[in-house]
Amino acid sequence: MREVMDLEVFATAEEAGARVADLAAQQVENFPRSVLGLATGSTPIPIYEGIVRHVRAGRITLAQVTTFNLDEYVGLGPDDPHSFAFYMRQHLFGPLALNPAQTFMPPNQGPDLKTRAPSYDRLIEGRGGIDWQLLGIGRNGHIGFNEPGTPFDSETHIAALSDSTRRANAPWFDNDWDRVPRQAVTMGLATIMRSRAIVLAAFGEDKADALAQAFRGPLTPEVPASVLRSHPSVVVIADRAAARLLAPSRGAYPV
Ligand code: F6R
To answer: In terms of CATH architecture, what is 4-200?
Structure first.
């Protein structure tokens, strides 16, 4: 078991985000038909800006990729500005004019959602599986919306969001955490672990404890991101503040 994943640390979130965008561009340059797993939240914003820059500069095209998002709030329609579908159109799919047929979000509406949720895993498998998965990390160590206690063998499922997660996401809801949905559909930990390569991005001081617990503490469902230590291809890209409690394991660290 590795103590720390391949870790690269940058002075700022902007530089770290640009590095993740470079890794995404390399993946798509080498494999234009890649299946990408995508995240939402504040962390991917500089990353998606970087990817859009690469496309506009003519270095890559996303015309042939397929994307699967990690998670979506239960019950929000795609035109709801709080939905992750809306976020993705705003930050990546819209600026790049991706065909909606290439981009998938987990099912998040309808009465039989509990039984339909795992069908997302079958859809992913039907497209050949995820080649390159982008992850953020929650302050409580969640990945996707797999909150502490989620079994390592979970597939896509409905997750109850913890108070900590709902408070962390309140800024997207006029700082009123009461308005943050209580449930989301999320890829499970087994779904994420089936990805061929994983890049976990963590920016800011409030991610330092979660990173340290995930990569230095015990391998336990109480820290969902700790499961990544048993994956053969994980790179952690962090800014200096988030990496404060981790020692770099390789590479050049412009800090
Ligand atoms: C989002 C997701 C979450 C976030 C995490 C960090 O699709 O799956 O795990 O990556 O909550 O969120 P930010 O980046 O807003 O700190």
So the answer is: 3-Layer(aba) Sandwich (3.40)
The preferred substitution site among 45, 137, 191 for testing ligand 1, maximizing ligand atoms within 8 Å of CB, is 137
Kindly report the pTM of this predicted structure: 0.95
What amino acid is encoded at 164 in this protein? S
Ligand 1 pocket, Cβ-based, cut-off 6 angstroms: 39-43, 70-71, 136-138, 142-145
Average pLDDT over residues 14-31: 98
Extents of the domains making up the chain:
4-200
pLDDT above 90: percentage of residues in the chain: 94
What's the pLDDT at 249? 54
How far away, in angstroms, is 44 Cα from ligand 1 center? 8
Residue pLDDT, tens place only, 61-119: 999 999 999 999 999 999 999 999 999 999 999 999 999 999 999 999 999 999 999 99
Cα of 86 vs centre of ligand 1, distance in Å, is 15
Q: Tokens standing for 250?
A: 């390789």
**Protein residue closest via CA to atom 8 of ligand 1:** 144
Which among 92, 87, 10 is positioned nearest to 48, based on CA atoms? Answer: 92
For residue 239, list its beta bridge partners.
Answer: 10
Please provide the DSSP assignment of 32-59 as one string: TT-EEEE--SSTHHHHHHHHHHHHHTTS
